[in-house]
Write a structure and sequence with these properties.
The structure is a homodimer of 352-residue chains. The first copy, chain A, has 352 residues and is an alpha+beta fold. Helices cover 34% and strands 22% of the residues of chain A. Chain A has helices at residues 3-14, 25-32, 56-62, 79-85, 101-110, 122-127, 132-155, 162-176, 239-255, 262-275, and strands at 19-22, 38-42, 47-51, 69-73, 91-94, 115-118, 185-188, 208-214, 217-218, 221-222, 225-231, 285-287, 294-298, 311-314, 317-320, 324-327, 330-334, 339-341. The A-B interface holds A 54, 94, 96-105, 118, 167, 174, 196 and B 54, 94, 96-105, 118, 167, 174, 196.
Chain lengths: 352, 352
């Protein structure tokens, strides 16, 4: 059996679960590499993936004998089959944050489950620690993001709209990676003051500020990087803010290591910003992997400690309403004694 | 109060619901025109929309005084507020097909709900019948789809890949409409034999067959059209299949009217196909509106009758595994004594 499924079976043992129904497609991809529509049933002695006719061939092309997963076409599963799947299971786990209430009731009925147990993100928590193959995919996605950023510095010209720039990023990722990890943010002028800006028809001016937040996917794994760049020159009013954000972004990198408290890290930046009259209005960062946002969240609200081979962002930002904003973000791999920066684009003033 | 909210309140009265929590964003858009992230609470005397800081301004710009909706920032809602919302409600409805089991439990706890009642798609069922404004948006989306198809007939050339063609459709819709209603299907050669083909890097040949399934959105409302076209010439082997599909597609149009049984319609095509040795392997059609696939489903499994101002597709197809397939689809508005074809692109052999 593959090591991730073996891990899950051990975990289920410790929770006294004899069966589990996995519905979150990202968790199924994580455990089996299957990217299709279906559900994964972990039974006492077997692993079963139920999908429909459209995906059978594709799923078989992904699985190897080592995965020990039996694939069913949902049309071939009888009422008896369903009732037998979990027949000798006292407790069966399910993903309460993923299935609808209606599906919950359907599973209860269809599988005749004795005791259906909420599993509280057990797989998502395990996904926080990346293995070699996952790190390789994320690293590749980060490299492509650096390359895309270099390309965009040549591409962007005054007169283009934010939408046109965002679109070019999408096109780049479509060709060079497995597409975007999220809709790129391209915000210019006073739009940079909105942390979640959506690209508009605003045209880049001869002297301007642009925040670009972008990431792609490689084999399902995401990258995430933000740079705030300048057209023509860096306005004097922006310099101290930019410097403050960048200093803090770098300081966090010095602190990122196995064992670091995310609350503590977040507090450091909050205090540094507050001393200069600014606030940290969003999280300092987040985990990423198969999802663009996943635990751990780097926030003063979290008790989490960083662990070796977590992959997280470091993205402080300051936003002056109606004027401008600055955010600088890298994707970072946590190591035993420090961290590895996976995105490596220039962070000093970039003027195009 | 706007007529759709008034309808819902009447419906709730007939179901003895004193309150309802609406979570499906398409249903919220339908009832209020709000397109944001949040939930709509229908209380005894008030309608409340709870969103977060990012959307407050946008939501206020959409609503008018006539909507009678009070907007809350979720950060400003206290535990007491939550407990008061449904205080005098015996029965509160929820969307069991939309909220997760975890959210269900959270609502129960947060709102101290006495009796939480499954509402079995009441709003989705109402959405089947379109009003003037909805029909206008769908009609506009269909017109743009016809225009896009004309444009694509000029654009497509041998040597292009399916992906390049799909991409051009997306770009067209991005400029001329509110984007795509679904990822366009562009399948060529033997790929046309897959009803749900995903565009590949296969290049269009000098003599080829191409199935294009495409649709866009206007103010949230979808269009959907499929044509199977030819490059160079129509192969002799394809002609009888094309003719059979087209004849049936047109025959269905003759039958579409208020009161028609979708099972009966589906059976007609199934029998016609079977007599010639072919099968109807997917539904004959589906409703569309805010969702690209919504009830009614035109299938032999459904008891539904068509009703005036439903909007549905008519899309028979025949697929010869490993060889080729033909599908022809229009978006149709049902009227009292017949139907109106909303997509009007050429359906006789198109050779480019």
């Amino acid at each position: 059996m593959n090591p991730k499924l073996q891990w899950l079976r051990n975990k289920m043992g410790s929770l006294n679960l004899q069966g589990m129904i996995i519905s979150n497609p990202k968790n199924i991809k994580y455990l089996t590499n299957i990217d299709a529509e279906g559900i994964l049933l972990i039974k006492r002695k077997e692993n079963i993936y139920i999908t429909d006719g459209r995906y059978i061939e594709h799923v078989h092309s992904i699985l190897t004998i080592n995965d020990e997963i039996i694939v069913y076409d949902s049309n071939d599963v009888s009422t008896d089959d369903n009732e037998n799947f979990f027949m000798f299971c006292e407790n069966v786990g399910f993903e309460e944050n993923f299935i609808t209430y209606a599906t919950y009731k359907e599973y209860m009925r269809k599988y005749k489950i004795h005791n259906f147990v909420e599993t509280e993100y057990i797989i998502e928590k395990q996904r926080m620690i990346k293995d070699e193959e996952e790190l390789h995919a994320i690293n590749r996605a980060c490299n492509i993001t650096d390359e895309c950023f270099s390309y965009m510095l040549q591409f962007i010209k005054p007169g283009m709209t934010e939408k046109e720039i965002a679109y070019e990023i999408e096109e780049y990722y479509r060709h060079m990676a497995d597409g975007i990890a999220f809709d790129p943010i391209v915000a210019s002028g006073e739009n940079t003051s909105k942390p979640h800006a959506v690209p508009t028809d605003r045209k880049i001016e001869e002297v301007d500020i642009i925040t670009i937040d972008m990431g792609c996917k490689v084999n399902g794994y995401c990258s995430d990087m933000t740079r705030t760049i300048f057209v023509g020159k860096v306005p004097d009013a922006v310099k101290p803010i930019y410097d403050l954000v960048l200093t803090n972004q770098k300081q966090v990198l010095d602190e990122y290591r196995d064992g670091a408290s995310v609350r503590h890290l977040s507090k450091i930046v909050e205090i540094n910003f507050k001393m200069r009259g600014h606030a940290l209005i969003h999280s300092l960062g987040h985990g990423l992997g198969l999802d663009i946002h996943e635990p751990p969240y780097i926030s003063h609200k979290s008790d989490a400690l960083l662990r070796e081979n977590m992959v997280v962002t470091d993205e402080p930002g300051i936003y002056i309403p109606g004027k401008f904003g600055v955010r600088i973000e890298d994707t970072i791999q946590i190591t035993k004694f420090g961290c590895i920066k996976l995105t490596n684009s220039e962070k000093n003033y970039i003027i195009i």
